[in-house]
Design brief:
The structure is a single chain. It contains 15 helices and no strands. By secondary structure, the chain is mainly alpha-helical. It is globular.
């Protein structure tokens, strides 16, 4: 059950990364704001890799041939998902974009069942549906019906794109890590998967911006103060997700990860003194019930 605390830690770091990334919205385009998580995360990943395998002397897992297309596809899917999510936020409807991106929970379950042959048990499927409903209720301010009516909004469309590609990336990350064999430690396989994926993402983004929008590169470098924290928290969160998904079914990991919304609510309550409605608390209970069902019975 090690994957549970690792997933919870990853969700926490993801919240911290998102809060820092939000600061960049006024300075950078959606694509450039997504780029900084790779540009500033990759050096941290390489430093960790050098310490872990070079200084500490752990054996480096040998990736098989099939690892490379899997990790490349995972990296590209994550780039598309990140840009789509940031664009959904730029439509000035954070709730709509967030809710539709959280269809990722069901998408990961379906992709894992079809692509990896790892279907959830019936209670797990029911739990995934509960989590999706609870998140919609929570983020919509108690009016998920209104959200469904707005399914064609640009924010909703971008949210759906983000959720779909985040799901694809999750399943591919697990497949890439597992391709190195179960005899290797899970953390070592996750670290190799992550550092390769971050390197590919950094190269692809750098070349892409150099060709299509060269002005974005110096802007990303000038935004180093908030961006370096985005990179650090992104690395810690991504490392947690990769490690957890190496240990356990990606659908379970990503479903448990939805507690990030509840963590955000708790932080707002404790640190900011915000108070929430009965609908908020009921929706939170639905999310927790779904998470428990997937985690323990899925």
């Amino acid at each position: 059950m090690l994957w549970i605390p690792i997933s919870l830690a990853a969700a926490t770091f993801q919240i911290l990364r998102t809060s820092r990334q939000h600061e960049l919205r006024d300075q950078l385009s959606a694509g450039a704001a997504g780029f900084v998580r790779y540009l500033y995360g990759a050096p941290f990943a390489w430093a960790l890799t050098i310490v872990w395998f070079g200084v500490a002397g752990h054996d480096v897992p040998t990736p098989p041939t099939r690892f490379w297309p899997l990790v490349t596809a995972a990296g590209l899917a994550q780039i598309v998902a990140t840009v789509a999510l940031l664009r959904s936020f730029r439509e000035r409807d954070f709730a709509v974009g967030t809710v539709y991106s959280k269809t990722e929970v069901l998408a990961v379950a379906i992709a894992g069942a079809v692509g990896l042959g790892e279907p959830l048990a019936l209670p797990g499927w029911l739990g995934a549906v509960l989590v999706t409903v609870g998140v919609a209720w929570l983020a919509s301010g108690g009016s998920p019906v209104r959200l469904l009516r707005r399914a064609g909004d640009p924010a909703a469309v971008m949210g759906l794109v983000a959720g779909t590609f985040f799901a694809i990336a999750s399943v591919l990350i697990r497949a890439a890590s597992r391709s190195m064999g179960e005899e290797q430690p899970a953390f070592d396989r996750a670290l190799v998967t992550l550092v390769v994926m971050l390197t590919i993402q950094t190269v692809v983004n750098t070349v892409g911006f150099a060709v299509s929008n060269p002005a974005s590169l110096p802007k990303a470098l000038r935004a180093s103060r908030p961006a370096v924290y985005v990179g650090l928290f992104s690395l810690l969160g991504s490392m947690g997700w990769a490690w957890a998904m190496t240990l356990e079914n990606a659908a379970k990991v990503r479903t448990l990860g939805q507690v990030e919304l509840l963590i955000a609510f708790a932080i707002a309550y404790v640190k900011l003194g915000e108070r929430h409605t009965r609908d908020d608390l009921t929706a939170s209970a639905v999310v927790l019930a779904g998470v428990v069902m997937v985690t323990l019975l899925g």
